[in-house]
Write a structure and sequence with these properties.
about 110 residues, four-stranded antiparallel β-sheet, three-stranded antiparallel β-sheet, 7 strands
């Protein structure tokens, strides 16, 4: 009687093992994933644009940014020009103030 139970147990475990292999066989297949098309959930196109801002000239009440003249309270994309100083422009975007400095001055007019 022990032999019958032992043989039945052995047959059941072999059968279960083959079913388990068939059930999990799809997990052994590897698929290449292409992450290059995914966009970062943390990326902010406006901030990326503001990071590329180049101040070319500052005059009293006017600033030339990326080839276009602006005045205080003008919109630069989604940002607003809040202050135009002697060497810095303050932008406001999403409740935050961002200072952009005039760089590489070759001649200063006083």
């Amino acid at each position: 009687m022990k032999r019958v139970f032992l043989i039945c147990g052995l047959f059941t475990s072999i059968h279960a093992s083959s079913e388990q292999d068939a059930y999990f066989s799809h997990l052994q297949k590897r698929t290449a994933l292409d992450f290059s098309s995914l966009h970062s959930p943390f990326a902010n196109p406006t901030l990326q644009h503001l990071a590329q801002v180049k101040i070319q000239a500052i005059f009293p009440g006017k600033v030339k940014i990326n080839g276009t003249w602006y005045r205080q309270d003008d919109a630069l994309g989604e940002a607003i020009i809040k202050h135009i100083g002697d060497r810095v422009v303050v932008l406001e975007y999403d409740g935050e103030r961002i200072s952009v400095a005039l760089e590489n001055v070759k001649m200063a007019i006083h």
